[in-house]
Amino acid sequence: MKTSTDITRRRMLITASGAVAWAGLGGGLALADSTEPAAKSAPGPVSSAKPLPPYAKWKDADSMIVHSANTIETRRNAFGSSGITPLDRLYIRNNIAPPSEDIMKDPDAWKLEVSGVKSPRSFTVAELKSLGLASVTIVLQCSGNGRGFSEHKPSGTQWTVGAAGCVIFTGVPVKAVLEATGGMADGMVYMTSTGGEEIPPGLDPKSIMVERSVPVSGIEDAILAWEANGEPLPLAHGGPLRVIVPGYAGVNNVKYVKHVAFTKEQSPANIQQSSYRFSPIGVKGTPEFDSIWEMDPKSWVTLPSDPGVPVKAGRVQISGVAMGGMSEAKKVEVSVNGGKDWQEATLTGPDLGKYAWRGFVLAADLKPGKYELASRVTNADGTSQPEMRKENNRGYMNNSWRDHMVTIDVA
Amino acid sequence: MKTSTDITRRRMLITASGAVAWAGLGGGLALADSTEPAAKSAPGPVSSAKPLPPYAKWKDADSMIVHSANTIETRRNAFGSSGITPLDRLYIRNNIAPPSEDIMKDPDAWKLEVSGVKSPRSFTVAELKSLGLASVTIVLQCSGNGRGFSEHKPSGTQWTVGAAGCVIFTGVPVKAVLEATGGMADGMVYMTSTGGEEIPPGLDPKSIMVERSVPVSGIEDAILAWEANGEPLPLAHGGPLRVIVPGYAGVNNVKYVKHVAFTKEQSPANIQQSSYRFSPIGVKGTPEFDSIWEMDPKSWVTLPSDPGVPVKAGRVQISGVAMGGMSEAKKVEVSVNGGKDWQEATLTGPDLGKYAWRGFVLAADLKPGKYELASRVTNADGTSQPEMRKENNRGYMNNSWRDHMVTIDVA
């Protein structure tokens, strides 16, 4: 992976019509895609390819589907079979445009404020590095991954399978930071993290700021990360510093984090109060509905899935990825006939811990014909991936095995 | 990581004087570094940086020390702390120049011949992909890693710590290939793999060909790999297809493998018969000396180690990497006073299996002064990294903890 030190400070704009435009306009125009405009196209590979935005131009273009400057997914056939997702193939989803690349010039100087603790203070990344070192491998997955399969066409990016990846993050345990600040102040029940995006002047910060709260029960294995897959964490993935809350949906892993507060209440930001809520179809999100926090078991077949390429008849290795959510992926079954019959697959790849995904493979002898390949994971808690999605207004957390099937032609 | 499809077919030449030169000379001039000229410089960062050769130009230049076009190591401070080594920071050591980048145009079409089995045949990579799928994470380490610390100045590249990395390889188990070919022919005791390098006309192939034999006891977890860390295996690391023999030194993991033979005898190639042998200082290698096969336990501190950058007094996280050789790294101790006193470190990072390395970290409170940081690993078999190197003519397999110490200034 090339770091992007040569990236200009131009920002990306998504116009109201969804067209991509570049603007050399300095710091003011950070707003992009935060309102998630309604679906404009069917799910699947985008035929008229959009270019990678400058901050992500080091991505492997052939492996990515660019929905917009802030929404880029991995193609189904590009995940590889090694357990981890290479950074140059990892999806991107920003709620608003990332900060200037300037913040990566001296990542160790980036400052984090810590409050809601006995001894509030700020730390540079260099100071955080002196507090501890830990790695955790997680599935990073956008809450809207799989939205493109919903029949009611929820507004937002029409992700198929690729707004997810499995990444080894390295940094300091949140617990070590708590220890260095005297522990949580009394009565705090959430960890609230604030992103370092610039808020365009004239806007109510609450309407746009990326600030997310998670219950403190979720921070047992949380870290503040400066490294991913052995590389310094790039801006596109939240560098210089990102909160990693293992098992929690992508939005909770706040990028360019500038403030971690332990709080009694959830953040007042729209992204916490009304967005990322499990509300029924047609009902706007409010705090009475569950927040998008813990992820569910989910799997999908990744190969064979080359669009338009027939598979050679005979022995075929059907492979994919399977996550357990809050406990490890324990068993994966594969069907070649759309879920009528199932066979247990073999887990492959390294076991990277309970928050990671595992590869799986099933050898099948396939005669010429059409096959609907499906997979279904069961986690260590005994929870299985369901056949049907849990319907909700914004199409969050779709883990239906039926929705995630892929059809292949064997010749 | 960018794949190098735009790389020209120019080859790199190392002239007799050690200078780097480029030549647009087609296929003939593959010879480079096979004779490992005597040391020309002291170990440590090379002050006059050489450029990355075209086939490896996608490497992160700041993380690498370029000894020659075929010998490129990772800087001590560039390994990261995530367990795996990113491909763009992984060392390169070729015995002779790699084949043309053309062989990567259609990697699935690359052909492997399999012999010494009941039903000899050849397979394309596409056919191998139908036979099975497995991942194995290994420390890939050049036999000469650490040679630069030897006092007798053995001939060959003066590697310090960086001719090693930890990589997730994915491919087909050798056992699945054996199954598809009726099993080993009777009486075979070695797996002999031949690289796809071009042999310059006029040379005795035996004098230069990369062909290595390993005992069949070593192939239990061996694979034929087409993927590394989730990316298609690049030419620089042996793509389209590489033999991976977990636990065995780098040279046994033959790149661009074109032939795997099960044999009664070891390869007649010089690289098997006389090179890579544990002969005493001053004695040329011959088959009577042990071949360089299984690796030993080894560790080294990676951070802090920024050259010329003083470390801030106070709490310092001392971290590094530790491999167990043929069994997992079980315990790591760290010394800040050159091995007088030791403290047990904490293992970090993912546990990627017994052939991988683990990160380790020790928190130390350091006052201003000079410190000699050392680490010492003990594997699951109870074997500890020794203080002194096992002296041998070519400086192979140096795992002395004393040699691998790093001195830091705390201010």
Automatic annotation (TrEMBL), chains A, B:
One of its GO terms (biological process) is sulfur compound metabolic process. SUPFAM superfamilies: E set domains (SSF81296), Oxidoreductase molybdopterin-binding domain (SSF56524). Residues 105-269 form the Oxidoreductase molybdopterin-binding domain. PROSITE patterns: TAT (PS51318). Pfam families: Mo-co_dimer (PF03404), Oxidored_molyb (PF00174). The keyword Transmembrane does not apply. It comes from the Bacteria. Its cofactor is Mo-molybdopterin. GO terms for molecular function: heme binding; molybdenum ion binding; molybdopterin cofactor binding; sulfite oxidase activity. Keywords: Metal-binding, Molybdenum, Oxidoreductase. Residues 291-405 form the Moybdenum cofactor oxidoreductase dimerisation domain. This is Sulfite oxidase. It comes from Pollutimonas subterranea.
